[in-house]
Amino acid sequence: MPTGIFTKRVSMVTWRIKNKRNKMRAIKVEAYGLKFDSKLEKYAFDQFKAFGLEFEFQKKYILQEKFRDKLTDKMIRAITLTVDFVFDINGIPYYVDTKGFATDLSKVKYKMLAKLFEDEDNVIIFVKKAAVKNYAIYLRSKIKGNVK
Q1: In a domain? residue 53
Q2: Domain annotation covers residue 81
Q3: 83: number of Cβ within 10 Å
Q4: How far is Cα of residue 3 from the mean position of the Cα atoms in its chain?
Q5: 28: exposed, middle or buried (C-beta count within 10 Å: 0-12, 13-18, 19+)?
Q6: How many CA atoms lie within 13 A of 109 on its CB side?
Q7: Per-residue pLDDT, 24
Q8: Which of 2, 69, 79, 129 has its CA 20 to 30 A from that of 11?
Q9: Which long-range CB contacts under 8 A does 96-99 form with residues at least 24 apart?
Q10: What values do phi and psi take at 142, rounded to 5?
Q11: Domain that holds residue 111
Q12: Distance CA 98, CA 43 (A)
């Protein structure tokens, strides 16, 4: 095996360990004393703060409680979802999650979140990087009452 290929492979492994990518290949970031799951999440945080929006950050919801399986007598873990940003605009919660792309699991979890709050008015949105700034402008105008 040529040494150039081996050296490149070792450096990629070292790079991955050093930058702590998760299974979705997003790089975790720490800033302002907070831990962000991705650069996109931090970017959205910065944009929402820059537009003066108030929100709850990384709010955790239990979609299904834990339970004991009667057949095997094993405890089944609860299904949880951590929403990146929750805005309260005119009494209506806006659940905003930043995603490079939505996985099948995340789509199912957001359907479960919609079912959990089906009796309430709410808005659930996935935001990609290109739309973060536009969405921040939209939310600010909703707060001011300029948009229906």
Answers
A1: yes
A2: yes
A3: 21
A4: 41
A5: middle
A6: 18
A7: 60
A8: 129
A9: 96/44, 96/55, 96/125, 96/127, 96/135, 97/125, 97/126, 97/127, 98/38, 98/40, 98/41, 98/43, 98/44, 98/126, 98/127, 98/128, 98/129, 98/132, 99/40, 99/126, 99/127, 99/128
A10: -65, -40
A11: 38-144
A12: 10
Question: Which H helix or E strand runs over 29?
Answer: strand 29-31
Q: What is the distance between the alpha carbons of residues 80 and 61, in angstroms, rounded to a whole number?
A: 6
The tokens describing 45, both together, are 């945080």
The kind and range of the H/E element at 35 are strand 34-36
Domain harbouring 58, CATH code: 3.40.1350
- Report whether 71 contacts 101 (CB < 8 A): no
User: To which residue do tokens 């910065």 refer?
Assistant: 46
d(CA 147, CA 139): 9
Residue 108 lies in a domain: yes
